[in-house]
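Reposting from the mailing list since nobody answered there.

I have sequence plus structure tokens for a pair of proteins and want to know whether others read the tokens the same way I do. The first protein:
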Amino acid sequence: MPRTIRFHLDEHVDPAVATGLIRRGIDVTTSAETGLLGADDAVQLAYAANQQRVLCTSDSDFLNLHSQGVPHAGIAYYHQQRRSVGELLRSLELLWELLEPSEMADRIEWI
């Protein structure tokens, strides 16, 4: 198991997800702790890409950036109404266990 993916959670992700990932030993940053609350989506995606972090979000604007060809380190996208905190946490942990960062580059993983 590679376990090398690092995550960045945008402001739409429940902070409990970050807490759960940290407890599992997974490297994660959040928009709040990096001073990106309210930042433009392109800025968020650029930050994650520069830090080589997979961006986790439920904001469909990131899907538009992907379709426009904006490079990124990966997007883990979920529908907010369809995933509990526990389900989201388990899905991100699974990505972390199974994929290398190079496999996530410029890819959307629907979770």
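The second protein, same order (residues first, tokens after):
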Amino acid sequence: MRDQATVRAALERAKARLDRLDLYPTPVRIDRVRVFVWPTLFRLPWFRRFDGYAAWNAIFLRGTVERSGDDLLTHELCHVWQMQHHPAAMPLSYLRSGYERNRYEEEARRAAAS
């Protein structure tokens, strides 16, 4: 990441937004969360439709943190929070429910909109 202070500040803003929500028993932990700007990943067929992707403690972005914006980072950090509480059920839910009507996806959308 180009500027770790910028990334850290953006993560802290996203965490502050999520901390206002009462979705899980403990607040999201960001101490081990890493943000990667990896535009090449989003050229792969599965990832083309996304601008961000969360996988446990990693958040992958198509563009820089500044370009991606706080809403996308909050959305992806919400997925990290979900996986902190449901590490197997959350990712597997996409196999059962798909993407559009997935309860975790809907929750992350609402979290970013709040």
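Reply #1 (J.P.):
I read it the same way you do. Residues 65-85 form the longest helix (21 residues).
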